[in-house]
Amino acid sequence: MERSLSMELVRVTEAAALASARWMGRGNKEEADRAATEAMRDVFDTIPMKGTVVIGEGEMDEAPMLYIGEKLGNGYGPRVDVAVDPLEGTNIVASGQWNALAVLAVADNGNLLHAPDMYMEKIAVGPESVGKVNIDAPVIDNLRAVAEAKNKNIEDLVVVILNRKRHEKMIQEIREAGARIKLLPDGDVAAAINTAFDDTGVDIMLGSGGAPEGVIAAVALKCLGGDFQGKLLPQTPEELERCKEMGIEDVNRILNMDDLVGGDDCIFAATGVTDGELLKGVMYKGSSAETQSLVMRAKSGTVRFVDGKHSMQKKPDLVIR
Ligand SMILES: O=P(O)(O)OC[C@H]1O[C@](O)(COP(=O)(O)O)[C@@H](O)[C@@H]1O
């Protein structure tokens, strides 16, 4: 992939964030998602690449755009797999809470796991804890390992986990271990990324969430030198069949970083829609709007924070969609 592709891709997540942030707190997650998806789709065709959506808004018959298999880009450039989540945290935006992102990930053709839309058990940690955790290990063992790797006490750790009934037992185990917890309403991609940035105060992410989001988070952590492990959790015979079609015969198999995103060349881009620990959300300032984005490439190890100031006069399409 060209080095410049990462900076081009930020324009895509910026556009999605600018469009969907208009819907903050308005109680309409569908419209927020639609605005993000349309804006993202519009910008993709200006990007120099031959992309194919492998993780998107759904199958062709259920999503009008950014559907799985859709071709993206201007047709000149590298052949790449594209994973998109135009609005990660639709409920977050609808209720004006923290950590909604517009996100995408790109890797060389054939290198992203085509994760079906089902649950995935996940564990995410930053660089210090690489090689120290195991998704199959008891919670207490993983917490001890992260505490030791970060030279902390377990009581100092902050664990993030989605606030769901299915996590009751795990939350109890974390509490018994003495660690602190952030219970998330939604948004486990931001949570996973935060584990690799010390200033966010987040040490480890545990629990299950969407498998597509898992692949996107794995790309981010590959760029950051962290670790991500996943396990698919099919809930129905149809979902089990989907796993087999993907070549995953043993669903209990741990999906390591290289299973989720192969090779060493992948790019991750995200723009804050609402404020979070790492990225600020969109601010509309009358004649302009400001965005904050994160863009990273695993091959070079470059991590960039990009502040954008967008003119509403010169770019009227940034107004409400
Ligand atoms: O709400 P569930 O079913 O527990 O699913 C969890 C998944 O939903 C999210 O919280 C938000 O997803 P949406 O943006 O599609 O609403 C993800 O971050 C997470 O992976």
UniProtKB/TrEMBL annotation:
Entry GO CC: cytosol
Chain residues that bind substrate: E88, G89, T90, Y119, R164, K165, R166, D186, G187, D188, G210
Pathway field: Carbohydrate biosynthesis
GO molecular function terms attached to this record: fructose 1,6-bisphosphate 1-phosphatase activity; metal ion binding
Domain of life: Bacteria
Keyword Transcription: no
Pfam families reported in the protein's UniProt record: FBPase_glpX (PF03320)
Binding, Mn(2+) 1: D33, E57
Requisite cofactors: Mn(2+)
GO BP term (any one): fructose 1,6-bisphosphate metabolic process
Gene3D superfamilies in UniProt: 3.40.190.90, Fructose-1,6-Bisphosphatase, subunit A, domain 1
Chain sites annotated for binding Mn(2+) 2: D85, E88, E213
Keywords: Carbohydrate metabolism, Hydrolase, Manganese, Metal-binding
Catalysed reactions listed for this entry: beta-D-fructose 1,6-bisphosphate + H2O = beta-D-fructose 6-phosphate + phosphate
Family the UniProt entry places it in: Belongs to the FBPase class 2 family.
UniProt name for this protein: Fructose-1,6-bisphosphatase
Gene: glpX
